[in-house]
Amino acid sequence: NFNIYGYNSFASIQEYLEDVARRHSDIVKLQPLGNSYQGRTVKLVKISKNPNAGNPIIFIDAGIHAREWAAPAMALYIIHRLTNHPDGRRKELEGVDWYILPVVNPDGYEFTRSSKANRLWRKTRSKTSTNCLGVDGNRNYGYKWAVSGVSKDPCNKETYAGPKPFSEPETRMVRNVMMQYGQRMKLYVSLHSYGQYLVYPWGYTGDFLPKEWQKLDKMAKRVSAAVQSAGGAPFKVLSAGKWYAAAGGSDDFAFGAIGVPYSYTMELTDGYEFVFPESLLRIVLPQFYEGFKEFGTQIKREF
Ligand code: 0X9
Ligand code: ZN
């Protein structure tokens, strides 16, 4: 019952991933990273034609925010396209390895699927106080943690930063991937929705930019142009902090703590806020995919 152009349950996503790994065992490996707070196993999908070549790695994650369903759908579509190339050549895999984590926060994701009343849940589902559940995973990373754009109140449903950096098993799993492969990681993209923004560090402040901002800006604009050429809506390209400052994001951690040279948060879709119609996925996912091909081309060219 898995539908690549649909919104799938976490269980059917897991089955799909196992199936892809079985059907394409020459290029796909699943690496279990650990368990979510409620015990769901989170798996990293590693796609490579030559895992021993030391190729640059593109790391994409999705679904840290529970309600942003377009993001896991995009991550899964990227896996689908990288493994089902029409002419069998898989140009995107030449000289670049793709590591994809389609659902970082499966507990939150399943909670948003469980009833209409829960559809707009954002955080994890950990018990953080006597009365309230959940931490905003994208305020929980340990770089400039909690210096801006966060709530310290566990009952805040949007931006509670957590009791300490990396309090959540979900953010620790992403951190561990970055620490394990960080030296080879040349691009990190965290998929979110909504609004068609492609933003780069710093996220914790809008007062200044990293010295490399022009390279970050240029690559993002090329990606946006590629999506537009495919008929998609362009992305607004700027630093995350100039959009609005918020600390503890995964993009700043990848860039500032790990040293990943290109790091982005990509806010997919526009016009429907968090509830993007399932029927439109078959239109937008292929358009966005052209942007990821462009990311691959740029990374191959530079590294
Ligand atoms: O606020 C966020 O976490 C992201 N937007 S969302 O609507 N998906 O919640 C933007 C994060 C941008 N990056 C940083 N502020 N570090
Ligand atoms: Zn988000």
UniProtKB/TrEMBL annotation:
Keywords on record: Carboxypeptidase, Hydrolase, Metal-binding, Metalloprotease, Protease, Signal, Zinc
Highest taxon of the lineage: Eukaryota
UniProt-listed InterPro entries: Peptidase_M14
Active site per database record: 267 (proton donor/acceptor)
GO cellular component: extracellular space
Keyword Lyase tagged: no
Cofactor dependency: Zn(2+)
Xref: SMART domains: Zn_pept
Any single Pfam family the record assigns to this protein: Peptidase_M14
Peptidase M14 domain ranges (all copies): 6-299
Gene Ontology biological process terms from the UniProt entry: proteolysis
GO molecular function, one term: zinc ion binding
SUPFAM superfamilies: Zn-dependent exopeptidases
Family statement drawn from the similarity comment of this UniProt entry: Belongs to the peptidase M14 family.
Name this protein carries in UniProt: Peptidase M14 domain-containing protein
Species, as recorded: Diatraea saccharalis
